Amino acid sequence: MTFEFLWTDKCFLTLLVLSILVILLSLRKQHVRRSFSIILHNPIAVSAGIILLFFITIGVLDSIHLMPMNHKAETTITILDNILAPIDQITEKTYSAPLALRQFISETVLINGVVKQIYPPLIYSAKIKTEKEKKRVITNTFIYALQCSTFAIFMSGLVLVIIRFSLRLKLFNLTPTSLSTLITLGILTFFVVFGYELSRTFHVLGTGQIGQDIFYFTIKSIRTGLVIGFLTTLFMLPLALFLGVVAGYFGGLADDVIQYLYTTLSSIPGVLLITASVLSLQIYIANHPGQFTTLAQSADARLLALCFILGVTSWTNLCRLLRAETLKLREIDFVLAARALGSNWFTIIRKHLLPNVMHIVVITLVLDFSFLVMAEALLSYVGAGVSPMTISWGNMINSARLELARDPVIWWPMFAAFLFMFLLVLAINLFADAVRDAFDPHQSHV
């Protein structure tokens, strides 16, 4: 096995590494350390951060592809695929409910010359024959997950005691932040172990129309959501930050040109622009098959192009907000004093303007991230989203929309996509809200 990285993998992992380096380098400044201390003393922020780290870890594991040494395989697998195997390799005939032993749809069979309607047993959970055995397995798994959760809480508490001992604090003084950390780690460990162990025997969230495991598809969709959110932000932020601050600080002709630019771009219907761009990319991929030798590469190119298009069309709102804030800040005394003392425009923007607009950047990017995760579902619905070969929450919702009209209702594909999308967006919103409060220079504690 050799490692292989697609373009979205390289961009996503590079962005994470650069973010970690920027955070570590910024810790040299006292006011930044004070802001991070405020975040670490916020129980909600710590809990949201732990959940967000869990999602990012899954995204990283799903971004490291493995290729056989002979390079004859048409598709690559990831580290996450190896962890979740074999649920990605065994498919059923059609729908099955969560934790079910039989298909959800009946079949007509001929038994001893008699035509009967039966619900065939599932292939994956064939070794569990009765409901009694099923309950016993679930109970044993529940107890095991509870034990792992208790062990995780104990080890986390031990680490906290060691940290408090090294800082010469009271060893067993349980602060709200410590309690929030222990509870979050315990609950997260319980559900991770419980879900993973059950997936060794059952289809935890059922199966879809062609028998695919919904639990596997939901977990694999995390990477797509993170890539769309983070890479679109990467493409959007430099344009919005530079043009917004420059327009507000210099005014005049530069301000007029930038205003005309984002006003014109805002007038173009976003969905139509994205649809036209995606269709153009599909034509390019079809005409240049030598550049995209596998289905994974063509799907990855479409995902990367979608992130770029969303970034190009999404920077206008942030640019407008930054321009308005910079127009106000450039008339404040400390900016006028810096200009009178001979500071050049780049130094004034870097030291005086950017730190005072970052709280707007953070909260806008978070709101846009939530919008982008949900926009992917909308674009997939109209056929302009990621490739059908890409596993994503949008494709899951698009394929599940007609299943809600069945009788009885097939509810679990839609529920699974909604649940994980909700958890990711909620964790990011809560964590970024605490980050904004901690780094906002207008707050009294900074």
UniProtKB/TrEMBL annotation:
**What kind of membrane protein is this, topologically?**
Multi-pass membrane protein
Tell me which InterPro entries the record gives: BP-dependent_transpt_permease, MetI-like, MetI-like_sf
What keywords appear on the UniProt entry? Cell membrane, Membrane, Peptide transport, Protein transport, Transmembrane, Transmembrane helix, Transport
Q: Known PROSITE patterns for this protein?
A: ABC_TM1 (PS50928)
Q: Which GO terms describe its biological process?
A: peptide transport; protein transport; transmembrane transport
Q: Which residues cross the membrane?
A: 6-27, 39-61, 142-167, 179-196, 226-250, 262-283, 303-322, 353-372, 409-432
- Where, subcellularly, is it found? Cell membrane
Q: Does the keyword Ribosomal protein apply?
A: no
Q: Which Pfam families match?
A: BPD_transp_1
Signal peptide segment: none
Give me the Gene Ontology terms describing cellular component: plasma membrane
Return the similarity comment.
Belongs to the binding-protein-dependent transport system permease family.
This protein is called ABC transporter permease
Protein species of origin: Legionella santicrucis
What lineage does the source organism belong to? Bacteria, Pseudomonadati, Pseudomonadota, Gammaproteobacteria, Legionellales
